[in-house]
Amino acid sequence: xxxxxxxxxxxxxxxxxxxxxxxxxxxxxxxxxxxxxxxxxxxxxxxxxxxxxxxxxxxxxxxxxxxxxxxxxxxxxxxxxxxxxxxxxxxxxxxxxxxxxxxxxxxxxxxxxxxxxxxxxxxxxxxxxxxxxx
Length: 134
Ligand code: HEC
Known about the structure:
Layout: H1 3-24, H2 35-55, H3 83-100, H4 105-122, H5 128-131
Helix pairs in contact: 2-4, 3-4
This protein binds heme C.
Heme C is lined by residues 18, 33-34, 36-37, 40-41, 43-44, 47, 75-76, 79, 85, 88-89, 92, 112, 115-116, 119-120, 123-124, 127, 130-131, 134.
């Protein structure tokens, strides 16, 4: 096997690891995202908007408060109970605090996306293709 194939297989297995529950349920519509999945989706939406506002040179003054509750959101496979997961949450929250302080917001925005990558390098690599566009 060449390296490219191995990488592709790893990426595919990462996607499956993250969508196991939706695959085993009867229909896609019946799939209830976990609390953590739902928050991740909100984080994607907010990060996209924030990126555009920063590009326009605007000041960000609406970091959603609920993102600070990241560590307590229930995950599909109880990832939120892992020490590894808990250990990587502060990197993201520190970046959000920087944005909240209105202190070098572009710097802290970039740090927030770096925090997504840090955690997703360990937990389900599937969303990395989305994260890389943020
Ligand atoms: C501390 C770890 C951690 C951080 C930081 C993190 N994620 Fe996640 N993410 C996870 C875990 C674990 C899951 C799987 C959740 C589940 O299945 O319940 C997940 C799931 C996702 C999903 C899939 C959601 C779905 O539809 O099921 C997306 C997209 C995502 N994350 C994007 C992001 C983005 C964007 C950021 C940064 C703004 C981010 N993540 C930061 C751990 C993290």
